[in-house]
Design a protein that fits this description.
Length: 562
Amino acid sequence: MISSTYGLDVSQPGSSPVIQVYTKGMNGLCQVGQDALEPLDFMGAYSNRWSLSFAFGATATKVMILFSEGYGPEQVLPQWAHAIVLFIGATEVGLSSYPFFVCLSTRFQIIGACLGFLYTGTWTVVMIVDIIQCPHGLVVGEYEKIIFYWPSLLCKVFLLGRFAYIFVQALRVRLQMDLNQEETSFLELHQAQYVQQLMKKPPTEQPPKSWIQQKVYEWDPLFQFPCRMICMGVLAMICLYMVSKGDLLVLRVSAPSQVDKPVMALIQSLEEFIDVTEGVWTATTFTACLTCVSYVFHILACYRKHMKRLWAGQKQFLPVMFSKCSSSQSVAAIARYSGWQIAYILWGYLIIHVVQCLFGVLLMYSFVLPVKNGQGVEMVKNLGIGILTLCIIIGFILLQVLIAARFFLQPKILENDKEKPLALDNRRGFQNFNYFFFFYNVLLGLGSCLFRLLSSIVVGAWLIARIDRTIMPKGYEALDMGFRTWIGMLFLDHYHTNPTLICFCHILVLKARERPQQGSTYYQHFNNATGKPEVSKKSRTRWLLLYTLLNNPSLSALRKSQ
């Protein structure tokens, strides 16, 4: 409730009318939800972010089991029932992990720390016993559980230490050995500093930036990522490690069994293909993993860039159809974003891995294997012929541009103009130029079409993990559900975490606190506290009007003429 959170008594006459109406209208709804437990704040939480992130990391093994549909029953179910089974499995994961977040977020820190320590310790002991009793698995083989479980186990150990620290700090406050540093204001320090910077005059000269600040990332002390983004990044990293590690180990385990088959042993080309694919797959595992890791950091950087643009009122970077977003879509988008982003990262890793592996195998068969088999001269000859053909095609394209610039454009108007004006010259020659190049451009168009298709596939597969930008062409952005989720999440964050708006609300709350403490107003001496006023209501109103006009002469010009 507002009154309990910020110390306001909304029942007093001096309280803000807006707060009174809001409180009366939402009283029933707040009465239902005020006692509900809150696992974490997905909107404007900036404290305890890393503890909640490690709590999500502790659930990484369950998320991966859910991702592989491991929570489903062993019986064969109809296809339509899989969505319901997945929802039930996701609910089970949420319920089993709920105490982690509730114990970290509760304001009853002593009870929360004790229960959280016991619950986390129980899960830690269960996981350690499971690893000791059965360290191997059916997919990877030896030490499978150690390889996959150690990130979640490390996160649980961190949570144990965090709960112990919370208990000690809360106990010191309870015993009055330390001051209670609990904040009652919803205005964060970095938000206040951001608003203060807006009020200052910008410096005439910007300080020099290093190469990392210019090309990679520049740290901004006036911006902090919300808890949702940090949790998404940590859980995505852990899940990405599990997928990439399993991807690498499964290939090493399964490849020899395939090669040992009698039929495959007789076919030398197939053995060579398997060896090449295994080597390329192993190498591209690291490159695909590094690509997705860089995407996680790049998404965080884009989130900061887009939010600061929205705070400044700049919406030009958004497609026209997304300049306004539905309120319900934005609320649903922020609920979907974290889960969708992790799924996009994992699926993007697999797709990028396959694409990189295909290109790697193509390079191996085009360059490496011919040299290894003593066909290097023939390979260089074929490569030279291919490069020469490509250069001739590009040369004809550039030739058309040069001829058009030299013979079919009027001269520059001014000598310092960079280009000639878009005005045709020598029209008869231009028509003959168009006619004779028409038939050859048909052939060039076929090659250009294939190149367009190939580049679209490569770029689309390369950027599939990033939902901060659409892979659809202009006008079809609405078909990209991931990008729509990103835009909806940005708008909701913009409306609820804008530092200027929060600072304004903070000032209103402070003024509402100070108002009941004010002793008098400008018109207090007109009130008769002993009884009813001796003058009529009309006379009193006219006297107040005269008093107001005397103190505000500029209002006289705005009065209606009688």
